[in-house]
Amino acid sequence: MSTAEYSDAWKKVKLRQLAKIRYGKSPNGMLSIDGPYPVIGTGGTERHGNGFLHEGDSIILGRKGTIDRVQMVGGRFWPIDTVYYLTDFWDVSPHWLFYFLETIDLRKLNEATGVPSLSREMLYQIEISKPRKDEQRKIAEILSTVDRTIEQTKAVIAKQQRIKNGLMQDLLTKGIDGQGNIRSEQTHEFKDSPLGRIPADWEISTVGEKVDFITDYRGKTPPYTNSGTPVLSAESIGDGRVRAITRYVSEDTYRRWTTRGLPEEDDVVFTTEAPVGEVAPFPGDGTYLLTRRVIAIRPDVFSLRKRFLYWILVREKRIGYWEARTAGTTAPRIRKQDILNLEMRLPPPEEQDQITTILNTQDSLIFEYGREKTKLVNLKSALMQDLLTGKVRVTPLLDKEDGAG
């Protein structure tokens, strides 16, 4: 089959010409913890049950509440009463239609003034440019391949994150011996401490006892500009890094606001509110202004390495230390003194360096997988834009398949 035979224009159709939209039903009466069939809501599988409402490929659309999520479901399942499910597909690949519907901003079809909701008639009126069915299948095949790779990458990231959390727990409480093994009380000497059992050559110290420099800026919000000196605000800190800077101040403002001292590279920056407990090494790639809700800490590196303090604070957030201290408050906030009073298990500096190297390496691995996931997500977005609009055709691939046959 030649490429010319695929050059016919895509047909404009309405969704009602391609599938039936059916109402989900309440699963009450068939729910079971051990049930073999998934109960599907707007967030995916919510529960399980002993019965199913549909068998085969289907597309789930939100009817009430979360209306901007599209799901592809197969097999036997029960869709709940806040969703629609599509069946009886005619002259259309369900998987291709799923990807096409993902490109629609369904929120614009909301007809309610309160809880968002979609009417079936409004959905039926969605206009769709439909290619030939073999082209649909090829497009869906390409996008499904990218989706599988994204899911595999997410699974690897989740696994590596679990490894990182385990390493933090073990290394920051038990440490590592000269042979590179995590200590245990069966093979190494431990002692009692206010924080529980710790290796014999470790000490307990507060952050305040090991700090050379700590500062926060409690003044008013500075006048922002469109360019100039970047502002390091609480919103800029997350995932252990300084993220995109969106605010700047003039040189004059910067000079007036830095009279209390400046952080240095790898000093630890900590957010005190909105959000609480995000932490990152201070960047060494230029000058930044710290504003309210951010504290900079510089430990005495001869007894407490900067990156080791960073990992201690990361762990404290992960185990909910700061959350517990602010529980019940209307506007959760950590004071500078709260950080200074934090007790920590402290190994000798050389061991701190070893522990930091291991955790940094694991963190870098997760970061690289995260970058790969971002690339894949961007690739999928670009492919959807090209393939689902006909900007790029898959007909050459179909020609090759026909030629191979």
What does this protein look like?
The chain has 405 residues and is α+β, with helices and mostly antiparallel strands. The protein is built from 9 helices and 23 strands. It has helices at residues 94-102, 120-124, 133-171, 251-257, 306-318, 321-325, 336-340, 349-387, 395-404, and strands at residues 11-14, 20-23, 37-41, 44-49, 54-55, 58-62, 70-73, 76-79, 83-87, 127-130, 190-191, 198-199, 203-206, 211-216, 229-232, 237-238, 241-242, 248-249, 268-272, 276-281, 289-290, 294-299, 343-346. The N and C termini lie close together (11 Å).
Explain the layout of strands and helices:
Elements (H helix, E strand, L loop, with lengths): L10 E4 L5 E4 L13 E5 L2 E6 L4 E2 L2 E5 L7 E4 L2 E4 L3 E5 L6 H9 L17 H5 L2 E4 L2 H39 L18 E2 L6 E2 L3 E4 L4 E6 L12 E4 L4 E2 L2 E2 L5 E2 L1 H7 L10 E5 L3 E6 L7 E2 L3 E6 L6 H13 L2 H5 L10 H5 L2 E4 L2 H39 L7 H10 L1
Parallel strand pairs: 3-8, 15-21
Antiparallel strand pairs: 1-10, 2-9, 3-4, 5-8, 6-7, 6-9, 11-12, 13-23, 14-22, 15-18, 16-17, 19-20, 19-22
Helix pairs in contact: 1-3, 3-8
Outline:
With 405 residues, the protein is an alpha+beta fold. It is built from nine helices and 23 strands.
Sheet with the most strands: spatial strand order: 2-9-6-7
Low-pLDDT runs = 1-7
Q: How would you classify the quaternary structure? A: single chain
> Any idea of the CATH class of the largest domain?
Alpha Beta
CATH topology of the largest domain: Adenine-n6-DNA-methyltransferase TaqI, Chain A, domain 2
- Report how far apart the termini are: 11 Å
Supply the CATH superfamily name of the largest domain.
DNA methylase specificity domains
Helix content: 25-40%
Number of domains: 3
Number of strands: 23
Rg result: 28 Å
